[in-house]
Structures are given as structure tokens and as C-alpha cells.
Write a structure and sequence with these properties.
By secondary structure, the protein is mainly beta. Helix content is 5%, strand content 63%. It is built from 1 helix and 10 strands. The relative contact order is 0.20.
């Protein structure tokens, strides 16, 4: 696997949608962030969001779409589908503001990219995965790899 980049993402002002047909549903607007890797870097635009579905306690299905803007002005859509599994006691520690080691939860998924610019077409139609670290409930570090 080859690391493409790390994203530092800020998500604030969550919207609790209540219980939908997929379980408890939380919408997290993407407020800002940045990404940086060997061949690509830029900013996360405030145009995306993550949706967390919790069908049962401790088991979360996450769907996220981010709009990235590279330092050379190219827009890239990044879609992420991930699983976040954690024990109630770990979630409680995060809620209390404690830093939790990423080995204490599972937050991994798949990533797809779309862009209209030839310079970054190399991202499309590739198998990519991500590993996410929860810094706190508003800040995430997402490491993206090409398989």
C-alpha cells in the first residue's frame, strides 16, 4: 500500500436526525480541514458532510463525501464508506474529552475519488482504503492509502 495523504478534518455543529430506518442518524457537516501527501495537498472545502448510522450501540456505519481543493486549484470529490466500532466505555471517555488510543476502536473504510482534471485522474478507479483517528468528536485524522 502507498499512502496518498493525511486529512485533518474539522466537523462541527452535528445534526441529530433521530432514529431513521438505518438506526440513530447523525449528520456532521465538514467545516474545514487540510490534506497533505507526497504528490498532493490542499484544503477541505466546507461543502461536504458525514452521516453516521448507528443500528446498534457501538456499531456505526459512516458515509462521507468531501470536496477537496488542491493547492493548484483542482477540485476532487472524495467519498468514504467506513465502519466505526467501539465499546461504550471508550465512547464515554471520548465524550469526556479524553484522548483515546486508536487501537481501542476500529475506524476503517474504503475511499473513492472523482475529478475532472487530468492531473489527478490517477486517483480514479483505484482501490483506496482509510484509517481514521478520532482526535476528539470534532476533529479527525484520516490517512488514505492506495492498495
Amino acid at each position: 500500500m502507498r499512502k496518498i495523504f493525511d486529512i485533518n478534518l474539522i466537523q462541527q455543529n452535528d445534526i441529530n436526525m433521530g432514529i431513521t430506518c438505518r438506526g440513530d442518524t447523525l449528520v456532521s457537516p465538514s467545516d474545514k480541514g487540510s490534506f497533505s501527501g507526497k504528490d498532493i495537498k490542499g484544503q477541505v472545502m466546507p461543502a461536504g458532510m458525514g452521516i453516521t448510522y448507528t443500528p446498534i450501540a457501538g456499531s456505526n456505519d459512516i458515509e462521507s463525501t468531501l470536496l477537496l481543493k488542491t493547492d493548484d486549484g483542482v477540485y476532487i470529490i472524495m467519498e468514504m464508506r467506513a465502519f466505526l466500532n467501539m465499546e461504550d466505555c471508550v465512547e464515554q471517555r471520548l465524550m469526556e474529552g479524553d484522548r483515546v488510543d486508536p487501537d481501542e476502536y476500529y475506524f476503517k473504510g474504503t475511499v473513492r475519488f472523482r475529478t475532472g482534471h487530468d492531473l489527478y485522474k490517477w486517483l480514479e478507479r483505484k482501490v483506496c482504503v482509510c484509517v481514521t483517528e478520532i482526535i476528539n468528536w470534532e476533529e479527525l485524522k484520516i490517512s488514505v492509502y492506495m492498495v
